[in-house]
Write a structure and sequence with these properties.
The chain is α+β, with helices and mostly antiparallel strands and 353 residues long. The chain contains six helices and 23 strands. The protein has three domains: 84 residues, no CATH class; 85 residues, Immunoglobulin-like; 163 residues, no CATH class. Helix 3 crosses helix 4.
Length: 353
């Protein structure tokens, strides 16, 4: 009680002496009797129920309160004659209306209809959120549309909600969508940043019983004019040929040729970040052969996902040969041959999932 009295006395003394009170502010504005400064919190006026407001005896003109149980919570003021509400001319949007979600490998498409009210401020974006996982996808527009949510796990069932955002804030979430199960990746699917071109089978490196794993080709070439080596034709030991060994080959090349650089094929492959992934590598010769066999499927999916066709050209593999040579594949007739590492030809990265 003694501390409270001391504080009140200090406030009254300050008010009497300076005519203004500053909180977190040593120089309150001369036009204000109370000047509160903060960059981390707001002013919280008295909160009460509507019945408690009505019970206020002889309210002063200008009295303001926040009524918690009136139309979901409203600011109210007394003008000297009667109580009224402070109306919002701009507020957050109403919730969007969600549509029927659909799923493909690794992602879902969530359609929505724009809310009937944007809150008086133009809607700038919509966000869909998954359950479980809280994976999100956002689209920047004002009207109805569809949102793609990526990174979803195959075999898992998901539902989604959508929110709308304007300059004032973000709406309540929409109703929950229907449940969709993310299917396992299939050959030709756009998945994991590229196109699925091989699914591992028993006996191959990367195969796991009861799970789906395989190889993904980038949707475009990373170069049409690049050497295998980084200026030095030294032996790297990257001689593996089997499916599932291209990543190890790439590691071996980079270990000898230097940290990831964009001046040689393996370094450029590892530096590629398509789809947001950083585990791309230069394919081994058998992986490159599978890419050639499925180039029609890869081309078809790549070109509708901002990619391009394979060129009728030579492509580097990560498989090293003898005498300072490495294996490459000819993508117009399927022939493969050893050529010097300083040849400049095309390359396209792959990754495993």
């Amino acid at each position: 009680m003694k501390n409270i009295c001391t504080l009140l006395a200090a406030v009254l003394l300050t008010a009497t002496t300076y005519a203004q009170i500053g909180i977190n502010n040593e120089t309150p504005d001369a036009s204000a009797v109370l000047d509160v400064t903060s960059t981390t919190a707001g002013f919280l006026m008295p909160r009460m129920t509507n019945a408690q407001r009505q019970a206020i005896s002889n309210p002063a003109a200008g009295l303001q309160v926040f009524v918690t149980d009136f139309e979901g919570g409203r600011f109210m003021f007394y003008d000297g004659t009667e109580w009224g509400t402070l109306s919002f001319t701009e507020k957050r949007p109403d919730a969007p209306t969600i549509g029927t979600a659909t799923a493909v490998s690794g992602e879902a498409t969530v359609p929505f209809t724009a809310p009937s009210s944007n809150g008086g401020s133009a809607i700038t974006s919509y966000t869909a959120t998954s359950s479980p996982g809280d994976f999100t996808g956002t689209i920047s527009q004002s009207g109805s549309g569809s949102i793609i949510v990526s990174g979803l796990t195959s075999g898992t069932a998901y539902t989604f909600t959508v929110t709308a955002t304007n300059a004032i804030g973000t709406s309540l979430a929409s109703a929950v969508s229907n449940s969709v199960v993310i299917p396992q990746p299939q050959l030709g699917d756009f998945y994991g940043g590229g196109v699925v071109f091989h699914l591992f089978v028993e006996g191959e490196i990367g195969y796991v019983a009861g799970e789906t794993h395989g190889l993904i080709a980038a949707v475009e070439d990373q170069s049409a004019d690049i050497r295998w080596h980084n200026g030095s034709s030294v032996t790297t030991g990257a001689t593996a040929t089997d499916l599932g060994t291209g990543s190890a080959n790439t590691d071996a090349i980079i270990l000898v040729q230097g940290e990831t650089e964009t001046s040689y094929a393996a370094g450029l492959a590892r530096a590629y970040t398509g789809g947001g992934y950083n585990d791309w590598f230069l394919p081994g010769i058998n992986e490159l052969s599978q890419m050639y066999l499925r180039k029609g499927v890869i081309n078809a999916t790549a070109t509708v996902n901002s990619g391009s066709n394979f060129a009728d050209a030579y492509y580097w593999s990560s498989t090293e040969g003898p005498s300072n040579n490495a294996w490459m594949k000819v993508f117009y007739d399927g022939y493969q041959e050893l050529n010097p590492k300083n040849y400049r030809v095309s390359m396209r990265a792959v990754r495993a999932f």
